Amino acid sequence: MSRALATSDPSQGSRPALQALPADLDPTRLPAHVAVIMDGNGRWARRRNLPRVMGHREGVEALKRTLRLCSDWGIGALTAYAFSTENWSRPGEEVSFLMALFERVLARELEALDREQVCIRFLGDLQQLPDGLQELIANAEARTASNSGIHFNVCTNYGGRRELVRAARRLAEQVARGELDPAAIDETAFAAELHTAGECDPDLLIRTSGEHRISNFLLWQLAYAELHVTDVLWPDFDAQALTLALLDYQGRQRRFGGIDPVSP
Ligand code: FPP
């Protein structure tokens, strides 16, 4: 698995050193796909008497750090909840700041993402995003589509219920056109109409800042994910916090509705 974002100026082509997997983690039992609800940016800023948006800015650093760690440690996919369909109800200034932040980060980091073989996709209802951001997204997805490294999925204007309704409508349209037999609609056919089509389901969901909620995130895909909730606020999420999440994951018995093979 190749490595992710450079910390320094991407135009210089410099790369931070590869980060070794902590010795207490079993490299053969890592999740293939980690999803993360990046919560607590506002609280992080408030505790420092800073405007909320400074928490989002710092949150980008935490996301870059996490992507790099996942890539270095051999995790195949990272899916991050950046902006939900409900986040439009935040104050206009905060929404505008976030949209401008996405644009700035994408423009600034694309070179390094591509060089490090990251394959980036934005999942959600993208048509509602500002035109400039849509163009940057289309360019980033096209440019990195054939990269061989970590899959980095950024859920933007994403809502789990909206995604399920969209999938149902797409299937219904295929039926109405006579292209699909309703009897052929099974879980595989349904999953193929989701934004995440082609991606394996997350094995581990991490939520920061102590809230025990799914918040309309990946409602279908998280069916069998292990959940790890940490009190750490997203901007403070680091290698130690990720290691604890992975240790927690490796301590779980995953049964997928079956029984523990060693139980009587
Ligand atoms: C939740 O914290 C965080 C968000 C709604 C925004 C997350 C976005 C980023 C970290 C930027 C990602 C950037 C790119 C380019 C993908 P909150 O504001 O709800 O925190 P609070 O619960 O403490 O108020």
General description of the model:
This protein has 264 residues and is of the alpha/beta class. It has a domain at 33-159 and 204-250: Undecaprenyl pyrophosphate synthetase (3-Layer(aba) Sandwich). Helix content is 38%, strand content 13%. It contains seven helices and six strands, in the order βααβαβαβααββα. The chain has helices at 41-47, 52-72, 92-115, 131-144, 160-176, 187-191, 239-250, and strands at residues 33-37, 77-84, 119-123, 151-158, 204-207, 226-229. A six-stranded parallel β-sheet has the order 3-4-2-1-5-6, with helices on both faces. Helix 4 links the parallel strand 3 and strand 4. The longest helix has 24 residues, at 92-115. It is globular, with a radius of gyration of 19 Å. Residues 1-12 have low confidence and may be disordered. The structure holds farnesyl diphosphate. Farnesyl diphosphate is lined by residues 38-43, 56, 59-60, 63, 82, 87, 102, 105-106, 154, 209.
Instruction: Write down the secondary-structure element order.
Output: EHHEHEHEHHEEH
Biggest sheet statistics? 6 strands, parallel
Predict the CATH topology of one domain.
Undecaprenyl pyrophosphate synthetase
DSSP strand (E) fraction? 5-15%
Question: What would you report as the Rg, rounded to the nearest angstrom?
Answer: 19 Å
Helix percentage: 25-40%
* Overall number of strands: 6
For the record, the CATH class of one domain is Alpha Beta
CATH architecture of one domain: 3-Layer(aba) Sandwich
Structural class: alpha/beta
Ions, cofactors and other bound molecules = farnesyl diphosphate
Mean pLDDT: 94
Q: End-to-end span in angstroms?
A: 39 Å
General shape: globular
Taking pLDDT < 50 over at least 5 consecutive residues as the criterion, the unreliable ranges are: 1-12
Number of helices: 7
Reading side by side through the largest sheet, how are the strands ordered?
3-4-2-1-5-6
The CATH superfamily title of one domain: Decaprenyl diphosphate synthase-like
